[in-house]
Amino acid sequence: MKARVFGRHFSRGGGARKALFRSLISAFILNGKIETTKARAKAIQGQVDKLVATAKKDTIAGRRILSAFFAGDRKVVFELTDVIVPSLKSFSGGVTRAVPLPPRKGDAAKMVRLQWAAEIIKKEKVAEVKKAKGDKKEPKKGKAPKSKKATAKKVIRK
């Protein structure tokens, strides 16, 4: 009797399928968008919504659940909880969008670009915009402090 496994199989066993989804989702979170097949995008969209809902709760237990899902990758957990979720506070679901692309050459697979439904404003971009506008104060102009090594060399030479 054939085992009844929920969802898409992708010709993989359970562990390989889980690793595929984990890597697709972490790449999506870190880069903000990914280009993949339509079937893979549809397979991970629901999981991304669930992870965003978990991150919105902003509890220690939620961060531990996220850390367990991403195999302890702190960079992905930080990006999701501290950078992406604040931009998605107004969304109650449907935080991803699949934009159709031309078919892939070779096997003509249907391709999509998976991206966030809202624009994610990252802290680095905000800092660059402020710097470009001139909001950031210039550092003080003056003498640079002498290093201890340079002073020690002078003492030895005398």
Automatic annotation (TrEMBL):
Q: Name one GO cellular component term.
A: cytosolic large ribosomal subunit
Arranged from A to Z, the UniProt key words for this protein are:
Ribonucleoprotein, Ribosomal protein
The domain of life for this entry's organism is Bacteria
Basic residues bias spans = 139-158
Q: Per its UniProt record, what Gene3D superfamilies does this chain match?
A: Ribosomal protein L17
Known InterPro entries for this protein?
Ribosomal_bL17, Ribosomal_bL17_sf
| Signal peptide residue numbers | none
| Record field: compositional bias (Basic and acidic residues) | 127-138
GO biological process terms on file: translation
Q: Region annotation Disordered: residue ranges?
A: 127-158
Q: Record's Pfam families?
A: Ribosomal_L17 (PF01196)
Q: GO terms for molecular function, please? A: structural constituent of ribosome
Q: Which family does the similarity line name?
A: Belongs to the bacterial ribosomal protein bL17 family.
Q: What is this protein called?
A: 50S ribosomal protein L17
Name the species this protein comes from. Candidatus Woesebacteria bacterium GW2011_GWA1_45_8
